[in-house]
Every structure is written in C-alpha cells, then in structure tokens.
C-alpha cells in the first residue's frame, strides 16, 4: 500500500520561533497533499490543500502567512508554522493522494505533535 | 460541514461484532461512503469504501442501504486493538477533499 511519512513526529519549540514539518509520500507520487490540524479530543480539521508546483488553497479562517505550505515536488510537502504561539500547539497530520494507481484515495501520515512553550 | 451523522460513542465486547452506524441522508448520486479510523495519537487509517453495493475486505464489511441514506460498518470479531475513533465520510470519488465529522469513539472491552 501507499505510505506517507512525517518528520518530525514530535517537536517542542519556544514561542515566537518557526517550525517546519515535512510530509513525504514514500512509494508513490502525490499530485495533491493536504494538511490537517487536530486539537485534543476533536476531529481533524482541513487547513489547506496543495498541488505540486502551485500555491496552496487555504480553508476559511486559516492564515496563509502563518501556515506556509510548500509542495515543491511530487513526493514532498512542507508546512511551516511561523512565529508559533502556545495556541498553535496541536497535532498536525498530512495526507497525500494520487489520481493514478490509487484513484484519488487519500493516505495519511502518522502526524506531528507540536508543543509551543 | 460534515455530511454525516454518527453516534458519539459505542462499546463492544471483545470477540463480538461491532456495528457502527452512519447517516448520510443528503448523499449525492456520485458520492462514495468512506470509513477511516484513528487510533489515539496516530494518523487516520483507511478501512473501506463503497458506492451502493455492500463491500467486504480483510478489515471490515460495509453495508449500504438501498436508498444510500445510511450505512453500517461491521467489524466481525472486535479486538482490543480496534478501540479507536471511526469516521464515516462521503465524497465524490474524483474529488480529493476529505472532511471529517466528529466520528464514533468505539471502545472494545475485555
């Protein structure tokens, strides 16, 4: 099956710093990648959708200047949380899909837990 | 803006079948029903999906009513490792957008 990895799995940072999270599709080329955020005991909330080589599409209420998304290749997307604050502490999950072999199925990464002190 | 309704929680005895219902009364003709589950602090795991016919794989069975307004995910022999939040999602197959509702927290008890 298709595998999606995230790095790091866990990160703790100081308030005001920036944090980069990587999402990689390991055995397939992802035409589209998605970023979700999940607060404790809540459901996943879609933040943005990105297609390789183009600008990400952000969901309403998600600040594009704060959550920078780069989808530079068909196997890598990055999410940078700029000037992080404690309220940005959350579980960030990426997913990837391809229209070829897997017919638009989405495959999820294991998640990255961000704690901002 | 999830288009599905699920009970917030359910319990199931280990070894018994777990039947998780989902209502999707506004489902469109081109929308599929997908089921994912999320074990604590992990990413969602794909379980099964279907359009109108019942589906079965090594993990579960999916029963979709004839009018497609509801479905049931069946775990035939639940184990403790099946304790998770189960999400029912409807979306068109050619649309990448996957939006999660609140899901059902299934607890399998010894």
Label this structure with key terms.
heterodimer, A: 117 residues, mainly beta, 7-stranded mixed β-sheet, 4-stranded antiparallel β-sheet, 11 strands, globular, B: 110 residues, 5-stranded mixed β-sheet
Describe it:
The complex is a heterodimer of chains A (117) and B (110). The N and C termini of chain A lie far apart (37 Å). Chain A has 117 residues and is an all-beta fold. Chain A is built from no helices and 11 strands. In chain A, the strands form 2 sheets. In chain A, strands 2, 4, 5, 6, 9, 10 and 11 form a 7-stranded mixed sheet that branches. A 4-stranded antiparallel sheet of chain A has the order 1-3-8-7, with no helix packed on it. With 110 residues, chain B is mainly beta. In chain B, 0% of the residues lie in helices and 47% in strands. Chain B is built from no helices and 9 strands. In chain B, strands 1-9-8-3-4 form a 5-stranded mixed sheet, with no helix packed on it. The chains are: A mainly beta (117), B mainly beta (110). Chain A binds chain B through residues 4, 6, 32, 34, 36, 43-46, 49, 91, 93, 95, 97, 103-111, 113, and chain B through 36, 38, 41-46, 87, 93-103.
Query: Residue share in helices of chain B?
Result: under 10%
Oligomer: heterodimer
Uncertain residue ranges of chain A: none
Number of strands of chain B: 9
Helix and strand succession of chain B? EEEEEEEEE
Number of strands of chain A: 11
Helix percentage range of chain A: under 10%
Ends of chain B: how far apart? 36 Å
> What structural class results from the helix and strand content of chain A?
mainly beta
The overall pLDDT average of chain B reads 93
* Cα gyration radius of chain A (Å): 13 Å
Strand content of chain A: over 45%
Q: Which structural class best describes the helix and strand composition of chain B?
A: mainly beta
* Overall 3D shape of chain A: globular
Overall pLDDT score of chain A = 91
| Major sheet attributes of chain B | 5 strands, mixed
N/C terminus separation of chain A: 37 Å
Q: What is the molecular shape of chain B?
A: globular
């Amino acid at each position: 099956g298709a595998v999606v990895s995230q790095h790091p799995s866990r990160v703790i940072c100081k308030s005001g710093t920036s944090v980069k999270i990587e999402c990689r599709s390991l055995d397939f080329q992802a035409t589209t990648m998605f970023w979700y955020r999940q607060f404790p005991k809540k459901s996943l909330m879609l933040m943005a959708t990105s297609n390789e080589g183009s600008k990400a599409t952000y969901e309403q209420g998600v600040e594009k200047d704060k959550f920078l998304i780069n989808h530079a290749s068909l196997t890598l997307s990055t999410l940078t949380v700029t000037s992080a604050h404690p309220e940005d502490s959350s579980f960030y999950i990426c997913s990837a899909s391809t229209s070829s072999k897997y017919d638009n199925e989405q495959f999820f990464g294991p998640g990255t837990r961000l704690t901002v002190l | 803006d999830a288009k599905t309704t699920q009970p917030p929680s359910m319990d199931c005895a280990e070894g018994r079948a777990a039947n998780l219902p989902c209502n999707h009364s506004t489902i469109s003709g081109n929308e599929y029903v997908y089921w994912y589950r999320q074990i604590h602090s992990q990413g969602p795991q794909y379980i099964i999906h279907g359009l109108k016919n019942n589906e079965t794989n090594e993990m579960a069975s999916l029963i979709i009513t004839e009018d497609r307004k509801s479905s049931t995910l069946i775990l035939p022999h639940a184990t403790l490792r099946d304790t998770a939040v189960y999400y029912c999602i409807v979306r068109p197959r050619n649309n990448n957008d996957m939006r999660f509702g609140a899901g059902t927290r299934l607890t399998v008890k010894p």
